[in-house]
Amino acid sequence: MPRTSFVSHPNMLGFERLEGLIERCVKTGGDSFPPFNIEVRDGGKYRISLAVAGYGLDDLSITLEGTELTVQGRKPAGSDKQEFLHRGIAGRQFRKQFLLAPQLELVGAALANGLLDIDFIWQPEESAVQRVPISRK
Question: Is the pLDDT of residue 136 over 70?
């Protein structure tokens, strides 16, 4: 049976990339470390909060390339030399990626009390109606 998708509908022009983006999100969404929350706040604001206990400012990096947000954590130096009777706090390297809507504008990020908060605001597009002239061939 042939595979069909919602983006193959003849009235949806230019959405071919969307299917690939969704598949990529599904594949990378299986890693649960570090745990994170996504909040919708008043006034069109959003916040991604990642639990990064044990990571300092120098251990974390955030990059935004187009609409792809990447958060990386590097294992703090020297933690391999520690001896544990029980290790319940993960300290491994991680890479989390989020695909953002083009209307989301990154406001800033802050680290406090083991949480990395990344804030966004929704910037609606101007939706002016445009009349298209028709020319003769």
Answer: yes
